[in-house]
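User:
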Amino acid sequence: MVHIIVDVESDGPIPCKYSMVAFGAVVVKKGLKQTFKAFLRPVSENYIPAALAVSNFTREQTLLFDDPYEVMVRFNNWLKEVVPKGDKMVFVSDNNGFDWQWINYYFHTYLGKNPFGFSSRRIGDIFSGMKKNMNEQNNWRKFVITPHTHDPLSDAIGHAEAMLKMKKLGLTKVNPRVKKNKDKKL
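Assistant: Predicted structure:
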């Protein structure tokens, strides 16, 4: 299973009415060398200047970004390169409700399907499960090394750093009760 951390920057809160203007992705693997970053030209006339300001873009800059179709083709090809054939990939994000909606919308709009499927994972929920405490959802951030700057690739790398640390702390260990009871029906 290949975990892909994705971070999105947009010019508003929802797809279709607004546009995804940049995103970054990184494979959660030692070294964090398998990365993807893209800037996308707006697909709508609507935008919120304050939303663009978060990621340090102006509307004029975004109008010069790459064609969204071409970006999604490149991203899909990159995913095929970094995920071994037959292996499953998992979309992981700091705020998967936000980030996944954009990637899902753009993949379906431009390529007709989303290679991630219809689900995603939130880092805070993974950490809460690891700690067996629902109130731990923000404490994973202490493992981020790279400063959060709203550069989508830089932020994705920071989140991947935290995931690698979580793996070192036991995230990938199999729960012996689950292994022992795997054939029992719930």
